[in-house]
Amino acid sequence: MSVNAHSLSQPKQNSGFFSWLWEWLSTVDHKKIAILYLFGGGLFFLIGGIEAMLIRIQLAVPENTFLVGHNYNEVITMHGTTMIFLAAMPFIFALMNAVIPLQIGARDVAFPFVNALGFWLFFMGGIILNLSWFLGGAPAGGWTAYAPLSSEFLGNGMDFYVLGLQVAGAGTLMGAINFLVTIVNMRAPGMTFMRLPLFTWTVFITAVLILFAFPALTVGLFLIFFDRLFDANFFNEANGGNSIIWEHIFWIFGHPEVYILILPAFGVISEVIATFSKKRLFGYSSMVFATILIGFLAFMVWVHHMFTVGLGPSANTIFAIATMAIAVPTGIKIFNWIFTLWGGQITFNTANLYAVGFIPTFVMGGVTGVMLAVPTADFQYHDSYFVVAHFHYVIVGGLIFGLFSGFYYWWPKMFGRHLNETLGKINFWLFFIGFHLTFFFQHFLGLMGMPRRYFTYLKGEGFDAFNMVSTIGAFLMFFAVIVMLINIAYSAVKGEKAKGDAWEQGRTLEWSIASPPPEYNFAQTPLVKGIDAFWKEKMDGKDKMTAAEPVGDIHMPSSSIVPFLMSISLTIASLGFIFSAHDGVRKPALFVAGAGVVLFFLCMLARSIKDDPGFHIHKEEVIETEKGVR
Amino acid sequence: MKKWRLSLRLFPLFAIALLLSGCGKEGLSTLIPMGTVAKEQADLMLFSLLIMVLVMVVVIVLFTYAIIKFRKKRGQEDFIPKQVEGNAKLELLWTIIPIILLIILAVPTISKTFAHSDTHVAKGDDVIKVKVTGHQYWWEFEYPDQKIKTAQDLVIPTGKKVVVELTSKDVIHAFWVPALAGKIDANPGQTTSLWLDADKEGTYKGRCAELCGSSHALMYFNVKAVSPDEFKQWSKDMKDGPSAPTTASAKKGEQIFKNNCMSCHAVGEKGGQTAPNLSNFADRENIAGFKEHNKKNLKAWIKNPGKIKPGAEMPSFEDELSDDQINALADYLFSLSVKK
Amino acid sequence: MSSVKDNVTALPLHPEKSTLEGKNKFLGFWFFLGGETVLFGTLFATFVALRHQTSGGPAAEDIFGMPLTFLSTIILLTSSLTSVFAIMAMRDNSLGRMQLWFWITVILGLAFLGLEITEFTEYMHEDLGYTTSAFSSAFYTLVGFHGCHVLFGVVWISTLMIQSFKKGITTVTAPKYYVASLYWHFIDVVWVFIFTVVYLLGILGG
Amino acid sequence: MATKQSETTMYIQKQQRKREMQHYLVSFGLMIIFTLLAFGTVMIDGIPKHFTSFFIVTLAIVQVLFQLYYFMHLKDKDHGFPTLFIFSGALVAFITVLTFVSIVWIS
Ligand code: HEA
Ligand code: HEA
Ligand code: CUA
Ligand SMILES: [Cu+2]
Q1: Is the domain of A178 the same as that of A292?
Q2: What is its membrane topology (chain B) (predicted)?
Q3: Cβ contacts of D100 on chain A, cutoff 8 Å
Q4: Is the distance from CB of A43 to CB of A94 less than 8 angstroms?
Q5: CATH for C85-206, among 1.10.1760.20, 3.30.360.10, 1.10.10.10, 1.20.120.80?
Q6: Contact, C60 vs C128, CB < 8 A?
Q7: By the CB < 8 Å criterion, does D49 face chain C?
Q8: Tens digit of pLDDT for each residue in C112-127?
Q9: Domain locations along chain C
Q10: Where are the domains of chain B?
Q11: Dihedral sign, CA of A214, A216, A221, A225?
Q12: Which of A372, A395, A396 should be mutated for ligand 1, with most atoms under 8 A from CB?
């Protein structure tokens, strides 16, 4: 794929499958990690999507017996958990890894080793979670895992939930710290904060939210873990525990989580719309301000998920007002996008179709969010299909549209080949229409009294027609995703080769280098002179960035298998803990768990003792590589 | 408050739109409210919907105009649009207008939220208090003032304020009667409350709205609103208990019941408290909260409750009792009426 | 960036932040501490919510003793100072002095752990087991989390010190020493709240 | 020339270190005093509980600020981001604690 710069400085490994595998298992290159995240997340997205299809098949007709009771609960739990933690989050990390270092003019991320570790932890966390299907049943407490159902009443599946998320969450946290430091410390000369591309800004704030939200989840999961495995009493009312504690902890994490998801999508939309309108982003500074404000407010509103818990009208209204306030900065963004389009020269390719489709769809989900923020009205909406409709509008119609837009937009940069536009447009329209068919009518189902997480509804409750429509819509989405898979395969074989400035109107730094970028990204660190640095240079009649340094040797980190080994050891530890819940094998299982933990720390020690000197790509090699580019 | 009442006049428009798409079934839908709380909630829902439709219209009009007017036209490929940085006035405009809209929404939000949470009412004739306990997967209703215990069917008088106090014996459940009022959670070890009333006599569907296990979806109950007089009569009858069985089969059933079922179920005062009280079983609307109320379903239930409600706490009696015995049990249970 | 050997003689004023790698480590570690703040905040919150839920078991005022807590506190505070001295020595490029102060820090840390373990075993004998009540679970979890941090710090600093014999103080190792000392201070920060909120307020019965 | 410059810097550095040392010792002394005060107030009977609680929590916060600003050098330049992030974390933690003392127990 990328030009291989190893040849001189690193001993060449035997070619063949194993060296290929080794390369991917041990890579610390952010561009390769991006691809790993993309395919890892993609795998789980397909699994989560299949689970969604199972849900829709069960609900297509009343009193269906396709998936009943506990099995249905397993499927919705795994659908929600998989989609949020194992599909959406890694997709976001895929784009972060692929784009952020390039957008800020950096050769790498701050901690390449940690970056790889983050990926492998996420991936193994996902594996742990999904192993539950084969080892005694999946978690069935909903993705919110309310105690005491999750802590006392459900079986082994919940242990997979707890440990899978714990491992994946640790990976996410590391990734966030890595990108925070990268953005603060590794910007090219002249790339001030107020010149950062908006995607980088949104990722920065997302990483901040991760940093402060995930530790709460970590604690919450530990509490459930201790309740389940060591008979602690956090949620055990008989010994003085309190199940509402879990709800608070979960949502103190959970609400910021939904903005963690949507902010990068906002960033993608900002980039794509500006690029394909051939205009700079309207109101850049207010966009930045709005992003920060959303990030701040994200921590002040979580109780809107708990209006019906009975916290009393004072708490409810305070949090209601705070929730409504988020509509204001979000609105600023919406209108700024519309006015970026305004007066532009808009190209409608697939990337931009998704971006443009995002706007009305997300607003639709956003305004139902504001409706939900009215506490006494939420007493009616809560845990009904109205909520399901709301969050799929913001998540699928917002986040997934944004991510797909980003994939179509940056695919050429990541892989050096374009995706096919015709297939892309079929994909978009199928997905767009299917999406609205699936979820629009769910608003009415909710208002008509259909609660969520119901594995069935009765004949004569009047829910039949809308549910059927919804299922049909889901099938359209299913076909849309198949088309997308075909497109990816097609592109890999026959896709049009991409130029460095793949869309010919790229504005930011990533378009100033080859597609895919060489291992070292920038032969010379660019000098940034303003917002939309590359566009600026092009307007000045140049086709390359002004360099901030002469060509020289480039220092690179060496690859390492240790991150992979570390996540394997945590997987072993997790499985040990999970099986320690079975009476017969408690002792040996705990022993395995301990061994896993020890192994993990040994890996850490090894890493600490052996400094990574890295290696250099020599000047001549760089010049040679760059020649082939244009 | 007056202001938003005024704008309610515009609602026929939206009401029509909603009607076209179907409001759902009477007695089940939040859009056909039958009690004070549900009505005010529906008003508030529609009022907020109005604001949201306004926002949507503005966004969609601007958006559609922009993407049609400014799409790339043939022959202008080299055109480079003006690189506008922003516009302070416009940006201020779309900061302030949403704030105003939200303030308009916040006012009724606050007042109604407080009003609907106000369950601290003086004891009196006009207030009925019910203690509700959620169990996996059934509802227990206790009237502390009337000293009655029942299950699955909540009987209330029309026109009176009913204060519901909730708790749970196991996991978190939520009590929801869409046509009468919004929901509130039943938390183990803690008490929450809500109030509701019903304008009209009739049966309203209630359901559990918090994931509580395998049969969360089947944790239905009924709210039967009757006239105040009827309610008084009913509560007196309930205290007297069901009339004794008369037929031979039912008497036989009573015996079987005593031997097999009393450890969990109570009839009248006597019996276990871990399962629904069956004193007025024959007067119920449904079996197990949602199945049609007939002997066939009852027998199926006794034979294998888990088949009807996955994960139900009641054991299967398929192998314990013969068909004859189950027939007798059914006769007995169908004789359990407090109606005179 | 530059090769390791150049720095043997002259060490920059802030060796922990003189290279990009060092700066990254420094900043990344502070961010990590920001996250840890939330982690402990959540644990504290849980403890505070459950502090009266003794469920028939012993309550805080029944078992906590002042002298032990006071001793632990002084030990940990002092260790914070010694790790500051270690960093000063590091900046003076004085390997021996740095090692000395860090080893003292480690020993104080071990002493603290020893006290904590005796304390816990004592409570166990007074029927405050981990599963006794919501209060006991929350107490052991919060204080135990902190204890694990101390343990980790002790191991971490020890391995660094063992390595330091071979590697000395360079722009590569300095950030590691510095970051480890930050971690140690943070442990102390958390302890200040633990002794105040858990022990003193517990004894007060507030 | 080069030596002269490094000599002056050396001198400045030395002075700085001396000052720093003073800071450390003073902060440490204060921290010990705060600790003593906290334990003392709890030991003395007859002080209203509310006051004691408020007082010792305040002492803890002040002591931690010393720890952060002097021992962990937040007062030095180049500590903008660390300061911002630590206090953001503290804010989230504070809101969490506030919630858990106020609205976790329903009636
Ligand atoms: C990407 C994810 C995402 C996003 C961005 C949002 C955004 C918002 N959400 Fe949503 N939400 C979820 C994901 C998300 N949500 C999920 C997953 C759940 C369910 C979890 C579960 O229970 O499983 C949920 C549930 C949920 C609830 C709880 C419902 C319940 O369970 O009873 C509430 C209540 O207040 C709410 C509110 C909001 C609000 C006010 C916004 C706002 O941020 C929206 C702001 C945007 C706009 C308002 C549109 C643009 C603005 C304008 C055009 C300006 C003018 C507008 C006005 C004046 C109104 N959400
Ligand atoms: C990122 C988040 C995300 C995404 C993308 C989705 C996507 C979808 N969701 Fe999801 N959903 C949630 C997050 C998400 N959901 C959450 C958090 C819940 C709450 C869970 C809970 O209650 O705890 C939920 C709950 C939920 C429910 C409610 C269940 C209930 O309450 O009973 C429903 C019902 O319709 C539903 C449907 C769908 C559908 C049809 C899609 C579609 O958009 C999916 C489209 C994708 C596909 C159709 C994939 C196609 C797959 C292939 C093409 C495979 C090909 C295979 C090979 C080649 C191997 N979801
Ligand atoms: Cu009870 Cu759901
Ligand atoms: Cu939310």
Answers
A1: yes
A2: Multi-pass membrane protein
A3: 245, 248
A4: no
A5: 1.20.120.80
A6: no
A7: yes
A8: 999 999 999 999 999 9
A9: 85-206
A10: 25-70+86-226, 248-333
A11: positive
A12: A372
C49 with D38: Cβ contact below 8 A: no
A506 and A600 co-located in one domain: no
Interface contact D106, partner B, CB < 8 A: yes
Q: Specify the fold of B25-70+86-226.
A: Immunoglobulin-like (2.60.40)
Chosen for mutation from D24, D39, D94, D99 (greatest number of chain C CBs closer than 10 Å) is D39
CB atoms < 10 A from the CB of C111, how many?
Answer: 16
Residues present in chain A in total: 630
Cα distance between residue A335 and residue A283, in whole Å: 10
CA D22 – CA A497 distance, rounded (Å) = 66
The CB-side HSE value for A209 (13 A sphere, CA atoms) comes to 30
User: How far is residue B277 from each of residues B232, B261, B280, B301, B326, measured CA to CA in Å?
Assistant: 20, 11, 8, 16, 19
Question: Ligand 1 atom 12: the closest Cα is on which residue?
Answer: A391
Q: How far is B228 from chain A (nearest CA, A)?
A: 27
Cβ within 8 Å, pair B185-A374: no
Residue C30: list chain D partners with CB under 8 A.
81-82, 85-86
pLDDT (average), residues A189-218: 96
Residues C129-180 pLDDT 10s: 999 999 999 999 999 999 999 999 999 999 999 999 999 999 889 999 999 9
Domain boundaries along the sequence of chain D: 2-76, 77-107
D103 — contact with chain B (CB < 8 Å)?
no
Which of A78, A81, A387 has most ligand 1 atoms within 8 Å of its beta carbon, as the pocket-test mutant? A387
User: In testing the pocket of ligand 2, which one of A253, A392, A394 has its CB within 8 Å of the most ligand atoms?
Assistant: A392
pTM: predicted TM-score of the whole model, two decimal places: 0.95
For ligand 3, atom 1, the nearest C-alpha belongs to: B173
CA–CA distance, B103 with A203 (Å, rounded to integer): 31
Statement: residue B18 has pLDDT above 70:
no
Q: Within this chain, do residues A535 and A570 fall inside the same structural domain, yes or no? A: no
> What pLDDT digit, counting tens, does each position of A371-405 carry?
999 999 999 999 999 999 999 999 999 999 999 99
Three-class secondary structure of residue A382 per DSSP: coil
Between chains, do C38 and D28 touch, taking CB under 8 Å as contact? no
A315 and A284 within one domain: yes
Q: Are B213 and A269 in contact (CB under 8 A)?
A: no
How many Cα atoms within 13 Å fall on the side-chain side of residue A349?
18
Quick: pLDDT tens for A436-492. Answer: 999 999 999 999 999 999 999 999 888 999 999 999 999 999 999 999 999 999 999
Do chains C and A touch, with touching meaning 3 or more CB–CB pairs less than 8 Å apart? yes
Nearest ligand to the CA atom of A307 = 1
CA of A403 to the centre of ligand 1 (A): 19
Antiparallel, parallel or unpaired: β B270-271 and B286-287: unpaired
The burial of B264, by beta-carbon neighbours within 10 Å (0-12 exposed, 13-18 middle, 19 or more buried), is given as: middle
Nearest CA, atom 13, ligand 1: A391
Which of C63, C58, C158 has its CA nearest to residue C107? C158
Residue-wise DSSP of C74-143? HHHHHHHHHHHHHHHHHHTT-HHHHHHHHHHHHHHHHHHHHHHHHHHHHHHHTT--TTS-HHHHHHHHHH
What is the residue range of A601's domain? 562-611
DSSP category for residue B81: -
Quote the tokens at residue D35.
Answer: 């600790």
* CATH number given to B248-333: 2.60.40.420
Residues of D in Cβ contact (< 8 Å) with A299: 91-92, 95
Distance CA A144, CA B212 (A): 12
Give yes or no for A66 touching B (CB within 8 A).
no
> Residue B191: its chain D contacts at CB < 8 A?
106-107
